[in-house]
Structure formats: C-alpha cells, structure tokens
Amino acid sequence: MIAKLVVWSEDRISALEKLHRKLSDYQVVGLDTNLKFLMRLSQHPQFVEGRVHTGFIEEHTEMLLGEQAVPQSAIVQAVVGIVLHDESIALNAARTSNDPFNPFATLTGFRVNHLYERKIELWHRNKEYKADVVYNRDGTYTVRVEGAAAPVEVSAKLTRSGAGLVLVLEMDKQNVLRSGVVMQDPHTIHLFTLDGSYKFSLPVYDNSVEGNNEVSDSLVVSPMPGVVDKVMVKEGDSVRVGDPLFVVIAMKMEHVIKSPKEGIIDRVLFQSGENVSKNVALVQWKD
Fold it and tell me: Could you tell me which residue ranges the Lipoyl-binding domain spans (predicted)?
C-alpha cells in the first residue's frame, strides 16, 4: 500500500462524489495502481445506492475492470498538452540562449502564408490514435481526431504545479477541462483527468544512418537537425530524380529535400511538425 484516502461528508452520495474528486487528484507514474478501479467503483450506480454484496466485483467485472475506449476529450487534452509542452521547451531554450527573442522559438507554429498543421500519433494500450493540430492566428488550436465526427476548437494553458503540469483547456468555448500532465520522458505522457488516468506513448523512430558503412547517395536523409514543414509524397508514390520530397526548416531557412533517384516510396518515416536529427532517413524505398 502506498497511500490511504479517507473522506467524510454529510451523506453517502456527497461522500462518494468527494471520494471520486480526491482520487482524481492522485498522480502516480512508474507503477500500476488500483486508482481507476476505485474511481469507477465510486461512481457505479448500485454502489452509490449501497446495494453491494460479496460477489459485487465479480458481477460487474467488465464495468469495473474492463478496458474502455479512450474518449475524444482525453486525446484532445493529450495532443494539446504535447504541443504546449514542446512550445515551453522551445521558449525556455531561447531564454537561455544568446538570442532570447528568436522568432523561430517565440513564434512557434507561425507561418506567413498558411496555417501550420502538425500531425501527432499516440499509442494507448496497443491502440493507435491520430490527430491533426492546426495553429490558428489567435493562439487557439483546431484539433481533428481521426474517426471523430467533427474537429474541435481549443484554447488552452499549461502551467507548472510542483513536479507536474496543469492543463486548463476549453473546447468549442463550452467545456472547460482541467487535467494533470506528467511528461515521464520525451516519448511518454501521463494524463490525469476526472474520468481517470491515461498513459500515452509517442512513436520512437530509430532511423539514424550515422556510422553506417552502407550509406549511399540513394538515401534520403535530413542534412541537419530541424522540423519537417511539408511532406510532398505518400506511400506508394513513384518519384523521379530531383522530385521534391520534404521541406525541412533548419537554421532559419527552408531546405527542400529532393529525391536522389527514381523509385517508389515504401514508407514515409516523418510527418509535418515532427523534429528530425541530422543524417536520419526520411523515407524507405521499395526494393
């Protein structure tokens, strides 16, 4: 046992409501807990009414312990939390550099002739979720979750609280959601909401060709660290020598990455908005 929670109120219903709120305040990462089970239990209609018995958990196993779909609101909170966290890192890096007012850090997501769109892939319990985030001129975001009926308009703020982060997010100018965010590492985000906690993983690509003795002119690699601005090909496309494949922003300039050979794209390894390192492969060719 790592913690004990005791609540008191004037009646059972209000005590269970308080219990659920306090359980949602727990932010535990690094080990499995029974928090989600307890939160579901505290809201189960029969448990709220006090109609429990020794076989209660077994009778309601699916509702109490079963795997439930991740709601759209949780995916939106996770992707916006990632976006704001990345912006915070860029701003902090600029403040400690010799160029604290660098617009490429302070104006994250700004584009002159179009709205910047970033694609984010998340994994939760072996299921993939995809979302597109559009950076609007007024500082808000339009988030499109794959499979959702419609995009949502989002305004959000991420602030530090103790060892974690607090995300306050408004969806479609109606629903205000507050959640805790813990970035365990650059590829893992924990989201703590009133409905439970979610652990999302971002895909990790290991496509570096540095030190590879088989590197040839046919490889398509990023010439320097940067951010993918545009992807001009998709899987299955036939390309010729000199066809533009990517636009990478680095060193305050746009670099057009062109095809070094004629062939068919087997796999596009990076999407718009993703960071790339030097000498990292951007596509794979079909044999």
Answer: 210-286
Q: Give how far the C-alpha of residue 6 lies from the chain's centroid of Cα atoms, to the nearest Å.
A: 34
The pLDDT of residue 103? 67
Q: pLDDT tens digits, residue range 211-263?
A: 444 444 456 888 777 888 889 999 999 998 888 899 888 766 778 888 888 89
- Beta pairing class for 175-185 and 283-285: unpaired
Q: Which two tokens stand for residue 13?
A: 């219903």
Q: Which two tokens stand for residue 73?
A: 């609101």
In total, the chain counts a number of residues equal to 287
77 vs 167: CA distance, rounded Å: 8
Q: Give the SS3 label for residue 246.
A: strand
In the chain, which residue ranges form alpha helices assigned H by DSSP? Answer: 12-25, 35-43, 45-49, 56-59, 61-65, 72-95, 103-106
Q: Can you give the residue ranges of every domain in the chain?
A: 12-65, 72-201, 221-285
Looking at CATH, the fold of the domain delimited by 72-201 is given as Glycoprotein, Type 4 Pilin (3.30.700)
Report yes or no: 10 and 18 within 8 Å, Cβ to Cβ.
no
For tokens 């004990």, the residue is 4
The architecture in CATH of the region 221-285 reads: Beta Barrel (2.40)
3-state secondary structure of 150: coil
Cα–Cα distance for residue pair 115/74, rounded to 1 Å: 24
